[in-house]
């Protein structure tokens, strides 16, 4: 079935990914220039000079991780128990797939563990001891949990894209506008924090946004979400929650 909007979004995500690679590979100093804009006269990342930004970043990361873990665990329980939630099992498989494959497999298990790219705060240009590495060049300046690409940005992008996909047909134009602004705000805040704290270069964060977008688009087709998301309503979610609560009460009362 032809879906012009899907095709346009796929093109946008691909252009973003290829554009980031082309731009920052052709002008590696751009990564340093952007990070330098977040430093003071002494080369210190100014968001690290007070504890609030770091604490907020840690709290946001924890909330998003708990959300992702909760979704994956709930989906696993449904599959094991062969439950068919009113909100649609395909929708839960979609959410779990986007979280596991994008931020989990591609970014954290593959790229961050094998790229070897040192984080901005650790390179010589910002007072560290490691060599700066342009994007797409795998090196030995970091042993594990490296700079390329950004796990937090990948996760926030995955949450924003996946939730928007599921809620889109249930929203009016005002709701869609609020959803787009909220999603963009979540991604923008995460991206700004990661760069401003000296934890990632701009190319790291933008690559993660593109990866999460492409993964969400892939699972959208794979899970047949175009039709399945019609059942992902507030009423269906509440009914599933009540059913789960009743099941747990029976289980604990039996023991």
UniProtKB/TrEMBL annotation:
The family database entries (SUPFAM superfamilies) matched by this protein are listed as: Acid phosphatase/Vanadium-dependent haloperoxidase
Q: Where is the Phosphatidic acid phosphatase type 2/haloperoxidase domain?
A: 91-220
Q: Does the keyword Transmembrane apply?
A: yes
Q: Which SMART domains match?
A: acidPPc (SM00014)
> What is the protein named?
Membrane-associated enzyme, PAP2 (Acid phosphatase) superfamily
Its source organism is Gemmobacter aquatilis
Keyword Transmembrane carried by entry: yes
Q: Which residues cross the membrane?
A: 63-81, 93-111, 154-171, 178-197, 209-228
Q: Which UniProt keywords apply?
A: Membrane, Transmembrane, Transmembrane helix
Q: Name one Pfam family in it.
A: PAP2
């Amino acid at each position: 079935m032809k879906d012009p909007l899907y095709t346009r979004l796929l093109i946008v995500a691909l252009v973003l990914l290829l554009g980031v690679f082309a731009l920052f590979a052709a002008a590696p100093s751009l990564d340093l220039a952007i990070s330098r804009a977040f430093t003071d006269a002494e080369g210190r990342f100014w968001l690290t000079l007070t504890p609030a930004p770091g604490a907020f970043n840690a709290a946001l990361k924890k909330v998003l991780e708990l959300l992702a873990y909760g979704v994956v665990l709930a989906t696993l329980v449904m599959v094991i128990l062969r439950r068919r939630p009113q909100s649609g099992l395909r929708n839960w498989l979609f959410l779990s797939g986007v979280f596991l494959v994008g931020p989990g497999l591609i970014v954290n298990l593959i790229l961050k563990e094998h790229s070897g790219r040192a984080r901005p705060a650790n390179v010589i240009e910002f007072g560290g001891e490691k060599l700066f590495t342009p994007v797409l060049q795998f090196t030995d300046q970091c042993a594990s949990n490296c700079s390329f690409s950004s796990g937090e940005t990948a996760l926030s992008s995955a949450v924003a894209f996946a939730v928007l996909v599921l809620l889109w047909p249930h929203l009016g134009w005002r709701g869609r506008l609020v959803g787009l602004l909220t999603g963009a705000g979540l991604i923008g805040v995460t991206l700004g924090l990661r760069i401003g704290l000296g934890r990632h270069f701009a190319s790291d964060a933008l690559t993660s946004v593109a990866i999460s977008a492409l993964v969400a688009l892939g699972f959208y087709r794979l899970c047949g979400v175009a039709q399945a998301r019609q059942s992902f309503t507030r009423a269906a979610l509440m009914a599933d929650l009540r059913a789960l609560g009743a099941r747990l009460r029976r289980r604990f009362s039996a023991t």
